[in-house]
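Teaching assistant's notes for section 4

Start the section by putting this record on the projector. Ask students to predict, before seeing the second block, whether Beta-fructofuranosidase will look compact or extended. Collect guesses on the board.
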Amino acid sequence: NAMLTWQRTAYHFQPAKNWMNDPNGPMLYKGWYHLFYQYNPDSAVWGNITWGHTISKDLIHWFYLPLAMVPDHWYDINGVWTGSATMLSNGSIFVLYTGSTEESVQVQNLAYPANLSDPLLLDWVKYPGNPVIVPPPGIGVKNFRDPTTAWLTPNDNWLITVGSKVNTTGIALVFNTTDFTSYDLIQGVLHAVPGTGMWECVDFYPVATIGGIGLDTSVNGPGIKHVLKASLDDLKKDFYALGTYEEDTNTWTPDNPEEDVGIGLRYDYGKYYASKTFYDQDKKRRILLGWVGETDCNITDLEKGWASVQSIPRVVVFDNKTGSNILQWPVVEVESLRENSLEFDQVVVDAGSVVPFEIGKATQLDITAEFEIEKEVLERTIEADVGYNCTTGGGAAGRGALGPFGLLVIADESLSEQTPVFFYLAKDIDGNINTFFCSDESRSSEANDVFVKQVYGSTVPVLDGETLSMRLLVDHSIIESFAQGGRRVITSRIYPTLAIYSGAKLFLFNNATGINITASLKIWQMNSAFIRPYSEDQ
Ligand code: DQQ
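Reveal the predicted structure now:
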């Protein structure tokens, strides 16, 4: 089936076959990036979860390795679930992961490499004293999972956090250890947010407020904020907030309580979940990985024989221009896949029109686009456009005075299949402009088994003097879209039936009624990455 074959991605990591979910234990060890991942070796749906293992020199080309850990003890027989790695300055590595026990109790287990001199870290030993942490009193035995990377306190203790909930309040519990084998629960919580439900895959890390470099997980002090991220089980979305970590009390306080974890910002406004960061000690950057699942149905996944991809790894920094969000940007290594670049300068797109690009195949692309609107025209528009949002605004077809305009990706010639990624400007009654960034899947597929076709998106801060800009990574069935240098990100999975192979095209569009747009673009065809089994002579 050509349509299903076409959906496999060319430069996003995915196993050769079967089901994958959360990224686990990422780290850079002896020159290799290691990525483990939740993996079902037997089927293209979730179950029988093991740790798949892959390595890369550049986070783009990957080599498959044998499974790192499988369910084989009473304390993880129902699944080797999500966990994280901690690298100590003495060279040792500790992995903590959640095991689902023979009674489906969630416990935390310790594992370590059998041989630290092996850069591939092929063999893993489970600590004989597992589990090392069991659900504390008052915590539901099925609501206690996904330990983080540990951070070191000034008095030489290691701390980790584990997500949970109490009633409907999402919480992050903290445990203290010195040897990674015995742990004490610290009284109180790192943070709690009522109404947010179970917190999965908590992540907690420092960001520098100036300088833009990444920080190792244990760094704290002046000029540092901490990001707290939780994956909300009820919503299947990753939420984060910026705040301050107090080491004395072991609490984290959000900068803006109205944008607390789970009620404010998201890493990605599309299909993206269970993400995790790690510190790249060689390139001094913090890298974010995230699971991008399918939005078609399980039966089709079984037919395809695979499900899910990982996002292109993203560098995370504090946005010191707005001061209120992080920036996410694809690792620079992805640019090594760029082939011939095509430049289109100052293309005028009149209100209500579509402009095609003759670029050959349009299924593997990296696109940067800037959009200009004459300032006087923007100021002249007096019409207020209150209450707009991406989800209810009618997508690319919902016309306003100042939007939508942007790109139509993976579109067929007749535009019956298309995924618009666009800006929409809405004036409030005081004449201020709110900018929205949206990805519209509603016409992305004519297949009759794709039930989730949403218009995703959010507002995006645009500061005085800034140009509207977006970057898109297009790879067959995934589109990762970044606005304003990564202030907002949206990932879409799409399942076209017509816009495949040479039938996939790219267009500019402007469906605003009151403005013409001037667009400048750079478009690169993207090479495929090598993603294949490891062999010695690579
Ligand atoms: N996936 C794992 C859990 C985690 C969930 C199981 C998040 O540890 O909470 O595959 O997707």
